[in-house]
Amino acid sequence: MGKVKKRWIALYVENEVGVLAKVAGLFSGKSYNLSSLTVGTTEHEDISRMTIGVTSDDITFEQIKKQLNTMVEVIKVVDLTDMPIHMKEVLFAKLKRITAEEKAEAFRIAETYGITVIDIDRDAVLLESTLTERRNDELCALLRATFSHIDIVRGGAVAVEGLSTSCR
Amino acid sequence: MDIAGKKLIVKALMEEGVDKVFAYPGGMIVDIMDELYQKADIELILARHEQALVHEAEGYARATGKTGVCLVTSGPGATNTITAIADAHYDSVPLVVITGQVAQDLIGNDAFQEVDIVGMTRSITKYGVTVRDRKSLGRILKMAFVIASTGKPGPVLIDIPKDIQQAAGPGEYPDQVSIRGYKPNESVHIGQLKKAYKLLKSAKHPMILAGGGVRISGAEDKLLEFAHRMNIPVATTIMGKGVIPEDDPLYVGNSGMHGRYAANMAIMECDVLFSIGTRFNDRITGDLNEFAPKARIIHVDVETASISRNVVVDIPVVSDAALALEKLVEWAEPMKTDKWRTIIADWEKEHPLSMKKPAYGVSPQQVCEAISDTFSGALFVTDVGQHQMWATQYIKLNSDSRLITSGGLGTMGFGFPAAIGAKIGAPERDVVCITGDGGMQMNMQEMATAMCHGIKTVTCIFNNEYLGMVRQMQQMFFGKRYGITSLRKQSTWRDTSKDVTNRESQYVPDFMKWADAYGALGIRVTEESEILPALTQAKASDLPVVIEFTIPPEEVVLPMVQGGKAMSEMIL
Ligand SMILES: Cc1ncc(C[n+]2csc(CCOP(=O)(O)OP(=O)(O)O)c2C)c(N)n1
Ligand SMILES: [Mg+2]
Predict the structure, then answer these.
(1) b/e for B318-337, b at 16 or more Cβ within 10 A?
(2) Quick one: B345 and B213 in the same domain?
């Protein structure tokens, strides 16, 4: 069956009503494990691009790509799993009811991770991170271990092929 | 010149060569109906229920290979079609279903008879869309006909709001469309096919498993030629039954859950399995880990997504069946398979298909054999249940006759309307419906459709007083606790000793009175000697005929492989 692991797909679809529902419905209807899905426009206003993260074994993943390909609204399926890609995910973390000492720790973490403190209050800070999904996972784990009152808002990953692959 | 949407819809139907539209009226399609009223070359068939209507269109499409066209209103008209659309989806039947929709300014208001039918049918259509712009109407209609009928065929649903039907817009109906996300496979990878051929050629115990895809692509003759040139025995799935004539010496029989012993054994023991036009449904494979355990598998299918989904195959070939077979026939050279075929013949001798003579009533085997003899060359249409399995076992198909059945979804209520639709598509042929006393009652209102349109079918009801297929499970695996599978009056449910021959007092409805009520001809058959006269009379009749056969209630379908068990574990 191959290893169960995280995989990435870029999906070009018609920018039409109902397409997002149809793609999402495929995953729920066939019990595929969808872990993130983002969608936005492209240089062509009638085409959207989705970045989809799934956790699956090889066989299921093959099937997912084939099923997506059978959809009339799907223009192209690109498997990003083993490609050189650039990936970013926006994450916001609100650290609340923190002490001065914890605040200093928050700044240290921000500096180490290369992320920004975008707002600050007497006993709270708001962090903005634009890192890879995996790096954000690590950040979340650290924040959870360090602070007790946090709100986390994550945006889902967006990925693009590196120039060497997309220009070929 | 600009024309109203409804006029463009009718123009599209005309240009697609549509001669029948299966329709049921309502407020949201009354504009289109009015437009159709003025077109003598399109016949409107008025069903009595939208589910049956779509099954009728399916019967028409399955019998003719043409796309079945349905027209229904919004809301309940649309939701009533869902089961039959799913049926068409799982059996790859080309349909264009047009649903009326409330005007766009009302969509989203929970308006009267507004439902999101495109959303509801998303996972059971090949394509579905609501037309939101009058300008795109022509293109969308063309897309519907192209998508429904090409590649792996299937149902397409086009939802048309009332304002679009009325709005003026471009009058052109395109003769072709290019759809960037839709590229059905139209060629075959020769290298891959060569590999497949080499592997097959190297086999000692080769087997061909042919499914419904062979018929969809019209590859029956090529398959026969290929099998004969190479001397390879052929088993079929239920959907593939008849793609090679059943009296052919290379034909082994149906495989699967209620398949022939020899066919299932041959698949268990073969060393190369060449499967074509089947998706390896669980009814065919049983326990996947035990399916064709000794074989390397070649899989030819037109849809990439059907390959290596259920069964992981050694050589996948994405191709239309006819295209692949055409090439293979060119290369084919005879193989020595005499020994292997003798082994298969011995399995057949060991456990042939046959049923015992019943103590009273008639045996399903006798009835099926008499039906195939009397109506040789007919279209046989079944419902779903034991009678369906008996039909797949004992109806003999020659090169003229065909079986039409609900294979993928197993929809009770399919048979009778599908038979009506088949007869509408092929009026010159005999159409015989084989149905159960349960399934008959799921669409029996359609007798009115048959009577009013003068459509003569012969409906054979296998009356065993039970929802037999489920009762068989209770009988074999649940200690004969026949809860809610008895169709007798509830007071007699638990009384298995009750004299079942005295049916007047126990059975509802009286099918003879039902036939009579609609003006059809009813014939009841309770013993063997009545079978042939009844069928002969039915064949000669100008009216729709209903023959009710008294089947002993506890007859079972054998062999049987329990769901999830290996195909070798047949209960004989
Ligand atoms: C719409 C629908 N509901 C339920 C079932 C489950 N089911 C399969 S066969 C069967 C019994 C069919 O009874 P009948 O039509 O009398 O045929 P028999 O098996 O007795 O020949 C049932 C209930 C089904 N296939 N379709
Ligand atoms: Mg029955």
Answers:
(1) bbbbbbbbbbbbeebeebeb
(2) yes
Give the total number of structural domains in chain B.
3
Q: How far is A51 from chain B (nearest CA, A)?
A: 18
CA-CA distance, B215 to B298, in Å (whole number)? 19
- The verdict on B346 and B391 lying in the same domain is no
The answer on B273 and B165 residing in a single domain is no
Q: Report CB contact under 8 Å: A62, B308.
A: yes
**Tens of pLDDT, residues B444-459:** 999 999 999 999 999 9
The boundaries of the domain holding residue B458 are: 364-550
* Count of other CB atoms within 10 angstroms of residue A27: 18
For residue B309, give the chain A residue with the closest CA. Answer: A63
In this prediction, residue A10 carries a pLDDT of 97
H/E segment holding residue A116: strand A116-121
Is residue B505 scored above 90 in pLDDT?
no
Tokens 């967006």 correspond to A158
- Name the 3-class secondary structure at B55: helix
Assign residue B450 the CATH number of its domain.
3.40.50.970
> Each residue of B349-408: pLDDT tens digit?
999 998 888 888 899 999 999 999 999 999 999 999 999 999 999 999 998 999 999 999
Residue B184 lies in a domain: no
Contact B122 A25 (CB under 8 A): yes
The reported pLDDT for the residue numbered B474 is 95
Residue B511 in tokens = 């099918």
Say which amino acid occupies B137.
L
User: Where do the domains of chain A lie, and which CATH numbers do they carry?
Assistant: 5-79 (3.30.70.260), 85-161 (3.30.70.1150)
Average pLDDT over residues B32-57: 95
Q: How far apart are CA B203 and CA B195, in angstroms?
A: 13
Q: What pLDDT digit, counting tens, does each position of A143-162 carry? A: 999 999 999 999 999 999 99
Tokens of B473: 């499970």
Do residue B319 and residue B431 come from a single domain?
no
* pLDDT classification of B488: cutoffs 50, 70, 90: confident
For helices B220-230 and B321-331, give the axis angle rounded to 10 degrees: 30
| Catalytic residue flag (residue B113) | yes
Contacts with A13 from chain B: Cβ below 8 Å: 181
Q: Considering the entire predicted model, what is its pTM?
A: 0.95
Q: Using an 8 Å CB-CB cutoff, list residues of chain B that contact chain A.
A: 118-119, 122-123, 126-127, 129-130, 132, 143, 147, 179-182, 303-305, 307-309, 312
Cβ of B364 closer than 6 Å to ligand 1, yes or no, is: no
Q: Which ligand is nearest to the CA of B415?
A: 1
Same domain, yes or no, for B498 and B451?
Answer: yes
The whole-number average pLDDT for the span B497-513 is 72
Q: B131 to chain A: nearest residue by CA?
A: A17
- Cβ contact, residue pair A59, B127, below 8 Å: no
| Of B387, B405, B412, best ligand 1 pocket probe by most atoms within 8 Å of the beta carbon | B412
Q: Per residue in B222-275, pLDDT tens?
A: 999 999 999 999 999 999 999 999 999 999 999 999 999 999 999 999 999 999
Say how many Å lie between the CA of residue B520 and the centre of ligand 1.
Answer: 25
**Are B124 and B217 members of one domain?**
no
